[in-house]
Amino acid sequence: ESDIPRLPYLRAIVKETFRLHPAAPLLLPHKCEQDVEINGYVIPRNAQILINAWAIGRDSSTWSDPELFTPERFIAKETDFKGQHFELIPFGAGRRICPGIPLASRMVHLMVATLVHNFDWELDGGRKPEQVDMDERFGITMQKSIPLKAVPIKLQTF
Q1: Global pTM?
Q2: SUPFAM superfamilies from the entry (predicted)?
Q3: Burial of 19 per CB tally in 10 Å (0-12, 13-18, 19+)
């Protein structure tokens, strides 16, 4: 866990995963307490507001090639997913940000690092990565339309 700050590519992979495949496509609803105008749009009092984290992560005005999984985009950027940068908000932002971010962040980084460190990986049936269908099915949480099966291969110790 203490090595995670010294693993910029791992951190970039996690950020890119949160950007392209947020666990929940829509953040929790908010209720507008008074009429407000934002960028020329009037939001009436008592309106239910849903933030589309999935669409924000795929916005071509913010991200170049938004449909591509490109962790390198985060190597030289200080973009964080802890509510400071609104182009990446898988856990929300502001006063209603998810209180579990510190635990979730540590656990995801630790799990990915452990899996990558201890195993080699191959796709089921010898498929190549570009042959994998990455389409998603919308719901309360995001799921792949066709489940992905990756096969762990124990690394040989020398």
Answers
A1: 0.83
A2: Cytochrome P450
A3: buried
